[in-house]
Amino acid sequence: MAKLLPISNCIKTLRERNGEMTQSQLGEAVGVTRQTVAAIEQRRYSPSLETAFRIAREFKVSINDVFEWDESSV
């Protein structure tokens, strides 16, 4: 199994709290594919800084409310 990237996130929880938003809907809103959203959620892919800000903006929260640096996985 591949090692998880050190950036954790709560995107799935935010999607669920936002009217059961799908990965496809979020991807369309921020300009990435559903597969990219899934990979970010699963910590298999680190988003670009621009994408990270777009995700936070979509949920009207701070980037720190979405992403966290997980020191234990470094």
CATH architecture annotation: Orthogonal Bundle
Name the shape in a single word: globular
CATH topology: 434 Repressor (Amino-terminal Domain)
Biggest sheet architecture: 2 strands, antiparallel
CATH superfamily heading: lambda repressor-like DNA-binding domains
Descriptive report:
This protein is mainly alpha-helical and 74 residues long. It has a single domain (7-73), classed as 434 Repressor (Amino-terminal Domain). Helix content is 50%, strand content 8%. The protein is built from 5 helices and 2 strands; from the N terminus they run E-H-H-H-H-H-E. It is globular, with a radius of gyration of 12 Å. The mean pLDDT is 94.
What is the gist of this entry?
With 74 residues, this protein is mainly alpha-helical. The protein has helices at residues 11-17, 23-30, 34-41, 49-58, 63-66; strands at residues 7-9, 67-69.
Keywords, separated by commas or semicolons:
74 residues, mainly alpha, 434 Repressor (Amino-terminal Domain), two-stranded antiparallel ribbon, 5 helices, 2 strands, 8% strand
